[in-house]
């Protein structure tokens, strides 16, 4: 995940909790959603209608061969893949900010959450792990090469790390698995913004601390360093890699790391009032600038078309998407205040970043329309990665997120935004959200209408569960919703399951298990295939989803319960 999901939920829950405690955010046109209000009649509140769309009896679905992620020739193709991220799986990685952030205080770290430690031993076992992907008959493996491992000190490159990743790429290519590389996936070298520096301490950029994405002097240096890193990857691996993702889930990442202190470096801009919020908006601008710089660096340095589709480098980024629904009093809402709040949340989460790097502009007031021209950002997106895990409600009845005037349903905090799940078995207990199958279709259809010329790939989708049948259901149902969007003409070219095996789920530690293969943490670290792996492998091998498989695992009905 990317925490994609966890990040979002954690970040927002902390935002909500702290904002509520400090009493801010009460300036919205609002009702007080105390218990006494719960029974009030509101003409705008519609009765809960949780009936799901009826697709009719299942037919067999077939999947064409894998093709280009971005070229016109790839329209209609389908790539099966699986995704990981370096900081979530790799051992031997003390130069990364997550290591310092989570290392116990007694050992010299900051002691936040669960120590990442050896993660899934994904570095020392990287070559043998390629066989896990191969066993599933997948076309592609999306992963990241750790920036901190390659460049543990500023401008000091660890050749042994580059050689290691060379071997991984070679093993993938030998197994006929196309690599897709994410350049920046939620982890940075400590020297990018040292998490050990307190938030109120002054910072002057130096080789040991560039002061981070919110620093007026440091951010341009950080952008240049990240572009230099991308150029190195593209020059080194571009002969075997064509598919590149610049950054991962930017809004979630920045919220968690610079907004509400749940990811390293633990900055608190959203929690520090209007001035902080303005600085947070500048952080978002800087990260868009970083995407553009990475995009340009890869385009310059990867000039070799590895797979013969006519494109040397297809460069996109991966976006966390949720199916945001207007809510009030824990029911679906048609109240204009809730519709407007939902529109603002969608503008920030779903549209701001992709619009910025296609049309070249920045939506400073979150209404979905650019207010600030940036022609230098235009046409810097060859494809979009879509990452879906859950549906969640949004209410305008309480304003908790500064600048957005909305509250969203997040862990343990409600404010009336939380909607009942379509079925209790759709709750994902360790992540505190609802897996809702049609949400992915809803987002893909929306994006297809908004950006009809933009090729998309579902670069993550999955479920935290210890039950193999539930994972298999998630796989089949995700594929059904993707094929539903394709049948409507949406240009979506593939599906990567999150994740290959259980891993470090950021602030959530090791409790949520997202792996097709389950990992024996703290023991042998052996990987054991779940029923999800078996079913995905069968589908990808046959390039077909049979009526029998759809009948057993698919549809919209109750899922196998989580114990
Ligand atoms: Ca290439
Ligand atoms: Ca190519
Ligand atoms: Ca605007």
CATH superfamily: Glycosidases
Largest sheet: 8 strands, parallel, barrel
Instruction: Quote the distance from N terminus to C terminus.
Output: 22 Å
Number of domains: 1
Shape: globular
Identify low-pLDDT runs.
1-51
The gyration radius over C-alpha positions equals: 22 Å
Strand sequence of the main sheet, in spatial order?
2-3-4-5-6-10-14-15
Structural class label: alpha/beta
Any idea what the CATH architecture is? Alpha-Beta Barrel
Instruction: Name the ligand types.
Output: calcium ion
CATH topology value: TIM Barrel
Count the strands? 18
Number of helices: 14
Helix fraction by DSSP (H/I, runs of at least 4): 25-40%
CATH class: Alpha Beta
Mean pLDDT: 91
Strand percentage lies at: 15-25%
Word description of this protein:
It is a single chain. Helix content is 35%, strand content 15%. It has helices at residues 4-22, 86-89, 97-102, 126-135, 147-150, 159-174, 218-237, 250-259, 273-301, 336-360, 438-450, 468-487, 531-542, 547-553, and strands spanning 61-62, 79-83, 140-144, 178-184, 243-248, 314-328, 331-332, 361-362, 372-373, 383-395, 407-408, 427-428, 433-434, 456-461, 492-498, 517-519, 527-529, 544-545. The chain has an eight-stranded parallel β-barrel with strand order 2-3-4-5-6-10-14-15, surrounded by seven helices. The radius of gyration is 22 Å and the shape is globular. Mean pLDDT is 91; it is low at 1-51. Bound molecules: calcium ion (CA) (3 copies). One calcium ion (CA) is lined by residues 363-365, 367, 369, 371. One calcium ion (CA) is lined by residues 238, 241-242, 302, 304, 306, 312-313.
């Amino acid at each position: 995940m990317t925490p994609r999901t966890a990040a979002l939920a954690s970040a927002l829950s902390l935002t909500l909790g702290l904002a509520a405690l400090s009493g801010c955010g009460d300036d919205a046109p609002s009702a007080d959603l105390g218990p006494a209000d719960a029974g009030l009649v509101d003409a705008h509140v519609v009765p809960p209608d949780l009936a799901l769309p009826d697709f009719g009896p299942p037919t067999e679905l077939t999947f064409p061969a894998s093709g280009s992620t971005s070229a016109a020739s790839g329209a209609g193709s389908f790539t099966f893949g699986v995704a990981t991220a370096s900081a979530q799986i790799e051992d031997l990685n003390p130069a990364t900010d997550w290591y310092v952030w989570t290392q116990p205080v007694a050992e010299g770290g900051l002691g936040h959450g669960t120590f990442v430690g050896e993660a899934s031993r994904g570095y020392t076992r990287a070559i043998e792990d390629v066989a896990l992907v191969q066993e599933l008959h997948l076309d592609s493996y999306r992963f990241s090469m750790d920036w901190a491992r390659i460049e543990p000190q500023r401008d000091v490159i660890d050749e042994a790390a580059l050689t290691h990743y060379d071997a991984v790429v070679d093993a993938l290519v030998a197994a006929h698995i196309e690599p897709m590389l994410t350049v920046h996936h939620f982890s940075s070298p400590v020297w990018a913004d040292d998490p050990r520096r307190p938030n109120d301490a002054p910072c002057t950029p130096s080789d040991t601390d560039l002061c981070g994405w919110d620093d007026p002097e440091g951010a341009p240096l950080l952008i240049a360093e990240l572009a230099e890193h991308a150029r190195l990857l593209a020059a080194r691996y571009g002969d075997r890699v064509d598919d590149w993702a610049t950054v991962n889930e930017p809004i979630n990442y920045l919220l968690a790391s610079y907004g509400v202190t749940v990811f390293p470096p633990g900055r608190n801009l959203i929690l520090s009032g209007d001035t902080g919020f303005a600085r947070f908006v500048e952080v978002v601008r800087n990260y868009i600038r970083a995407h553009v710089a990475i995009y340009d660096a890869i385009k310059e340095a990867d000039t070799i078309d590895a797979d013969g589709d006519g494109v040397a480098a297809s460069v996109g980024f991966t976006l966390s998407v949720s199916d945001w629904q207007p809510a009030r009093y824990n029911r679906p809402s048609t109240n204009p205040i809730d519709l407007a709040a939902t529109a603002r949340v969608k503008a920030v989460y779903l549209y701001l970043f992709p619009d910025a790097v296609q049309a070249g502009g920045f939506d400073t007031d979150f209404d979905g329309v650019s207010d600030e021209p940036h022609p230098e950002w235009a046409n810097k997106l060859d494809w979009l990665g879509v990452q879906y895990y859950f549906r969640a409600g949004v209410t305008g009845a309480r304003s908790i997120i500064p600048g957005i005037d909305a509250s969203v349903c997040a862990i343990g905090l409600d404010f009336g935004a939380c909607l009942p799940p379509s079925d209790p078995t759709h709750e994902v207990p360790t992540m505190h959200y609802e897996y809702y199958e049609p949400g992915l279709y809803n987002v893909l259809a929306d994006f297809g209408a908004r950006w009809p010329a933009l090729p998309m790939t579902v670069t993550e989708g999955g479920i935290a569960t210890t039950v193999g049948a539930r994972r298999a259901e998630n796989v089949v149902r995700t594929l059904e919703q993707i094929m539903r969007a394709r049948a409507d003409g949406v240009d979506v070219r593939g599906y990567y399951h999150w994740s290959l095996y259980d891993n470090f789920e950021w602030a959530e530690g090791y409790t949520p298990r997202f792996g097709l293969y389950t990992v024996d943490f703290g023991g042998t670290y052996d990987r054991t295939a779940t029923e999800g792996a078996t079913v995905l492998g069968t589908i990808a091998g046959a390039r077909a989803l049979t009526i029998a498989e759809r009948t057993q695992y698919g549809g919209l009905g109750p899922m196998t319960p989580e114990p």
